[in-house]
Amino acid sequence: xxxxxxxYIAELGYxxxxxxxxxxxxxxxxxxNAGLVAPEIGVACELGFGxxxxxxxxxxxSVTQWHGTDFNPSQASFAQELARASGAQANLxxxxxxxFCLREDLPSFDYIGLHGIWSWISDANRAVIVxxxxxxxxxxxxxxxxxxxxxxxxxxVPMRDLLTTHSEVMxxxxxxxxxxxxxxxxxxxxxxxxxxxxxxxxxSIVQKIETIKKQDRHYLAHEYFNRDWHPMLxxxxxxxxxxxxxxxxxxxxxxxxxxxxxLTPEQQQFLSTIPDRLFRETVRDxxxxxxxxxDYWVKGARSLNAFDRAVAIRxxxxxxxxxxxxxxxxxxxxxxxxxxxxxxxxxxxxxxADHKVWGVGDLEKTLSAQAANQINFAQLLQALMILTAAGHxxxxxxxxxxxxxxxxxxxxxxxxxxxxxxxxxxxxxASPLTGGGVQVGRFQxxxxxxxxxxxxxxxxxxxxxxxxxxxxxxxxxxxxKEGKTLLTAEDNLAELVLQAETFLQTQLxxxxxxxxx
Length: 517
Prior knowledge:
Blueprint: H1 27-33, E1 43-47, H2 53-60, E2 65-69, H3 73-86, E3 90-93, H4 97-100, E4 109-115, H5 123-136, E5 137-148, H6 156-169, H7 177-192, H8 197-201, H9 204-213, H10 217-224, H11 234-241, E6 247-251, H12 265-272, H13 277-288, E7 292-298, H14 306-315, E8 317-320, E9 330-333, E10 336-339, H15 342-352, E11 358-359, H16 360-369, H17 377-389, E12 393-395, H18 399-419, E13 428-431, E14 436-439, H19 442-453, H20 461-474, E15 480-481, E16 484-485, H21 489-513
Parallel strand pairs: 1-2, 1-4, 2-3, 4-5
Antiparallel strand pairs: 5-7, 6-7, 8-11, 8-12, 9-10, 13-14, 15-16
């Protein structure tokens, strides 16, 4: 019998995560910050799309034509359900890479995305993917790829092999993957109690396993218990992708662009002495103990001169995606938490607080006209990068494209909100303004459903809470707050009223501005 899983966990479905880095709309600011031409994206592909939430949100929230595959038929079925609901151009299949990548009916792509899957597939499948990229990515096209990276995972490699070996050798015959995961983690804890020399030499591994024990078993099955698990040095990735004629463009993780929050002055100076850019990236990973890279590669990098770069950045439009009151002037980098300069960030955030779309050039002019501000273009650009990295800001789609996509996102969001009646799986809705997903929890989705079904006089926090509690109570569900289940109807309703008040005051206006509703 052929093993269609190729050693990948198929017993449990993947989590219903959304990954903003897969949004092609995000690459514009990153490319321009790096001084590179940012291509237009008309046709895109995601390889290994999991449950297909990201692929469907990006297809619905844009005019881009999407293709993709995931070998797990149950996951592909869910992805196809979402595509039918939105009516977007999304051709999402359940084929393995070796079949999908050889299809003759696929177009050439402006963008190909792989999130995480690279680390959990065989060398043979990686070769298939590189050949696919070589043949099907257009000149000037972009590859987004993320993967587990050495040296951050170096100590975990033998530990992971021990866990999977225990699962295979010591797991009860016929037991599912979840009991085998639990048994392997319990075994590791007993091993640590003997104070093995490995833990003495690698003290962080004990805390790592403690963290893992608290994580969702669906996630752990796909993260650690596949047959293949290959953290890779950046230099090896670069060598591998040379066969597809790809140049490293820049990180898709916006925080990585800001050296000041990730590297000490001594580290920055040391890196500046390394002339080879690819080797410099490898050395940088050692400095920050990189565990997971998110990178853009391009087939034919084209540099911009300083003038054209500034013109292109000023032509971008941005929108604030978080309530202004929720934004703290702090940023987290490899060096830890750092404060943001209030004299720079407060004026910028105050202007963006209306959640209207601002052209970067208009933002710069308005700030310059305020006598108290001395914010130069470089400071503004860095602020935009850091706010985007924190999830507080996004580049905005052209209004004409956003209007076309609105029909699709309205359909997709209505479908997801309706599913929230009985499930808390999906925590994102689609925004045609950003071309991507916006985090919206289950209760907040049900509040939106209540608003959609209510008469004009029933839009109070109490009315929303009553609506949601009826849904929960009918299914025997209660709210868990701070680790404790609320037992009485009064306590559940009181908590829902508090959440509904916050929703109406701070979250709903943002969702309306982003055209989610």
